[in-house]
Amino acid sequence: MALKEQVIENHNEFLESLRHRFLDDDRKAALQRFEKLGFPTKKDEEYKYTNLKEITEKGYNFFPKESHNITKEQLDELHLGEENFDWITFVNGKLHKELSKVSIENVEFLSFNYALNDEKHRDIFEKYFNTIAADKSAFTNLNQAYCKYGFFLKVPKNVVIEKPIHVFYISQNQEENTFYNTRNLLIVDEGAKVEIIESHHNFDNTYVLTNSVTEIFTYPNAKADWHKLQNDNDTSYLIDNTFAKQEKDSLTTVNTFSFGGKLVRNNLDFIQNGSNINSFMNGITIIGKDQLVDHHTAVHHNQPNCESYQNYKGIFNGNSHGVFNGKVFVDKIAQKTNAYQQNNNVLLSEGATIDTKPQLEIFADDVKCSHGCTVGQLNEDALFYLRARGISKKEAQALLLYAFANDAMQNIDIEPLKDKISKLLAEKLEVDIEF
Predict the structure, then answer these.
(1) Which positions, given as ranges, span the membrane (predicted)?
(2) Which residues contact 167 (CB under 8 A, 6 or more apart)?
C-alpha cells in the first residue's frame, strides 16, 4: 500500500493510541489538508528537481516497536567526544533517560509526548505550537496529524545554557520500514542562550522515513544555534522542516551538514519580526553514489536594519544529485537590510548534477542584497601547484576540496562539533588531515 493510503487508514488508530486528545480536532483538520494536497510531485515548482516516488510508493509501519538492544559502545560511536555536553536520546521514538545525560537547570525540558500530556503546559502549546509552521505543505500537515516524538525546551529569561545539548534520534530493531514524525519546539526567552545539535541514526537495513518539524522562537537579545548533523545510512529518508521566528536584537543560526542518507530534503524558513536581527544559515553537502540532498531556504525580512547570511557549499560525486533554492524576501518597510546568499558547488564526476536557484524579491529601495552561485570542477592550476610540491593527485584534490568547504564552518563555536565535521570531511574526501 502506498504511503498516502496508509496515512489516511492509520489515523484513527493513531489517535486512539494517544493519552492526550486536546489536539484531535487540529490533527483531523491537518489530515484533511494533507489529503487534499497529496504528496508533491515534480510538477510542483518547489519539488521540480526532487522526485519523491522512491519514498511515497513504499509501505511503512506507523507504530514502531519500542524494544531495542542499543549498546553503550554503539552510542559512544555517535558522540562527538563531548564529555561536557548534555545529550538526549530517543530510541524508536521514545525518550530514554538512562541513555541520556541532562544536567541543565532552571529550564523547562520535556519529551514532546509528555508535554502534550502535561496540562500545565497546555497554554504554552496553544500559544506556540504550529503557529509558524506552514500549513500549506503536505509534510508539515502530515507531521501535525501524526506528531508524537521529539522534545520541548523553554529557556527562561537571561538563562544561559553553557553546555551544548546533543539530541539523538535512533531507530533500531525494526523489522519493517518505519515512519517517524518528530516534532521539536524550542523557545528561547529574552537574553537567553542555547545550542542544540540534532542527529538521526538508523541501525537497521529496513527503510526509515523521518518527517521532522522544528519551531524555534528567539526573543529579544537571545541567541539560539541549531546544528543539523545528517550522516545516516543508505536506507534512510529525511524530510526536515525548520521554522525560526526572531524578535528584535536576536541572533539565530541553523547549520546543516549533509553527508549521509539516501534522500534528504531540508526546508528552512526564517521570519524576522523585529529590528537589528541577525540570521545565519550555513550548509556543507558531500555525497556520492545515487544520494540526493535538497536545500530550500527562505528568509523574510519584515523589519528594517536586519541582516541575513546564507553560505552553502556542495561537493557531488558518483551519480549524486544536489538541489539548492534560496529565497530572500525584503518587505517595503525593511530598509537598511543586508542580505547575503551564496551557493558554490563542485562536481567530481560526469554523473553528478546540481540544480541551483538563488532568488531575491526586494520591495525596499535602501538595501544591500547579493546572491550568487557557482558550479564547476577543481582548479587545474591549483592542482598543478600542489602536485609540483610532491603531493599526490588524490591528496591534492582532497586538500582543495577541504579548503573549499571549510569556510562554511567558521561560525561553529562548539569545538568538538567543528572537529567532528572536519573529520567527516576528511573521511569523505579520503585524506589524512591533522586537527
Answers:
(1) none
(2) 87, 88, 90, 151, 184, 196, 197, 198, 199
Phi first, then psi: give them for residue 311, nearest 5 degrees.
Answer: -140, 105
Q: Is 327 left (phi over 0), alpha (psi -120 to 50) or beta?
A: beta
Q: Which residue type occupies 354?
A: I
Q: What H or E segment, with its residue span, contains residue 301?
A: strand 292-301
- Cα-only R_g, the chain: 21
DSSP state of 352: -
What digits encode the pLDDT tens for the residues 52-89?
Answer: 999 999 999 999 999 999 988 899 899 987 778 999 99
Residue 404: name the closest of 435, 385, 431, 379 by CA. Answer: 379
Which pTM value belongs to this model? 0.95
User: What is residue 431's predicted lDDT score, i.e. its pLDDT?
Assistant: 53
Q: Compute φ and ψ for 119, nearest 5 degrees.
A: -65, -25
User: Which pLDDT tens digit goes with each residue over 111-153?
Assistant: 888 888 777 788 888 899 999 997 889 999 999 999 989 999 9
Calpha distance 88→75 (Å, rounded):
11
Residues contacting residue 380 through CB under 8 Å, at least 6 positions apart: none
As a whole number of angstroms, the distance between CA 63 and CA 431 comes to: 42
DSSP-assigned letters across all residues of 42-110: TTSGGGTT---HHHHTS--BSS--------HHHHHHHS-S-TTSEEEEEETTEE-GGG-B----SSEEE
Residue 148 in contact with residue 181, Cβ under 8 Å?
yes
Amino acid occupying residue 431 = V
Residue of 166, 238, 168, 253 whose CA lies nearest to 208: 238
DSSP string, 134-145: -SSSHHHHHHHH
Angstrom distance (rounded) from CA 318 to CA 236: 18
The SS3 assignment for 385 reads helix
- DSSP strand pairing (183-188 vs 151-155): parallel
Beta bridge partners of 91: 94, 170
pLDDT tier at 18 (50, 70, 90 boundaries)?
confident
Other C-beta atoms closer than 10 Å to the C-beta of 257 total 24
CB-based burial, 331-352: b 16+ in 10 Å, e otherwise: beebbbbebbbbbbbbbbeeeb
Residue-wise pLDDT tens digits, 287-336: 999 999 999 999 999 999 999 999 999 999 999 999 999 999 999 999 99
Between CA 174 and CA 209 the distance in angstroms is 12
The β-bridge relationship of strands 94-95 and 86-91 is antiparallel
